[in-house]
């Protein structure tokens, strides 16, 4: 059973579902929790993934506790109906944490895709650091995207055979999508192009309003186009729209489908983002990234020189982005296509490790702490 509920889970689990479909030894049963609604259904269709069940848990302005209660209850029912051999969850969302918890209540082994990312700060990103750590206590298989993530898991006492370094499935999907050549860039102009995405809970409110001010000052320069595909969250919209709506240098649109988003990313000159997935995709396409967050659990892109953790101070964000727009040589130094997050074959490694273990005659499914 593959459990997903938000846009990034669909993107990062689609290659796993496709690899299961291709294997004679697996039969995927995809459960959409429906934590996201408008941002999920078209995404699954674009990725060629069919959800076998939709739990439709989303509420407008959902709070974490209410969402958690609805998810555990609904996922428990789905797991008891279907009795899968393995439950696969991805990343750090509330859907993933509740999928792992509901599976372990039924003593069904959990596979965690994108395991081991850490900032060391329980409140940043919030609640994602907490969710990812909790899943780490439950999972039978820990599929770490990078060696650094695997090292975090070892340091926490997860037994070595349960950790497999695979690369990140987001890169599998990016390659798959770009090969199809389906998307169109969403920019209107051909000058300097800046792609901005913002949505994190810890940035919403004052922090995000400050970032909107920095983005507005960039657009005020008059020599660039800022494209802002808006997350569906009302809290995000309330933080960003007052400063940015109607500005002639800012193009605001609804969330882009994955084909158009990847084409847009491939066409931009600079990325400003607090997204996890975008931090992983941009380096593959050689796009400089300014990470608008206090911490990142993906330091590999920074080490590779293609991303900078600039924080959320509006003056600092404006100054760094402005300098990069003015200094083509500095931008070019950052704009190197590197793949610190994987080679595009993560899903195959995940399936072969999981199926291999399940077929062992002495297979014993126990969580790390049993
Ligand atoms: C969630 C994840 C976050 C991930 C992000 C991806 C958690 C705790 N957070 O954050 O890790 O980075 O998704 O985008 O799991 N909404 C809609 N339609 C949609 C989606 C959202 O209207 O299709 C609105 C709803 O009012 C909803 C709100 O956005 O209540 C927030 O959605 P939620 O999933 O709770 O949190 P995210 O901030 O999206
Ligand atoms: N994305 C998309 N359309 C958009 C914005 C983002 O398809 O308008 C994709 C992007 O390619 C990335 C993923 O959504 O793979 C990131 O999702 P998000 O930023 O919502 O969540 P996070 O990665 O931070 O958990």
Can you walk through the features of this model?
The structure is a single chain. The protein has 370 residues and is an alpha/beta fold. The protein contains 15 helices and 13 strands. It folds into 2 domains: 2-168 and 343-369, Rossmann fold; 192-334, 3-Layer(aba) Sandwich (Rossmann fold). The longest helix has 19 residues, at 64-82. The chain is globular and about 65 Å long. Helix 8 packs parallel to helix 9. The relative contact order is 0.13. The model is unreliable at 366-370 (pLDDT under 50). The strands form 3 sheets. A 6-stranded parallel sheet has the order 10-9-8-11-12-13, with helices on both faces. Strands 4-5-6-7 form a 4-stranded parallel sheet, sandwiched between helices. It has a 3-stranded parallel sheet with strand order 1-2-3. Bound molecules: uridine-diphosphate-N-acetylglucosamine and uridine-5'-diphosphate. Uridine-diphosphate-N-acetylglucosamine binds next to helix 1.
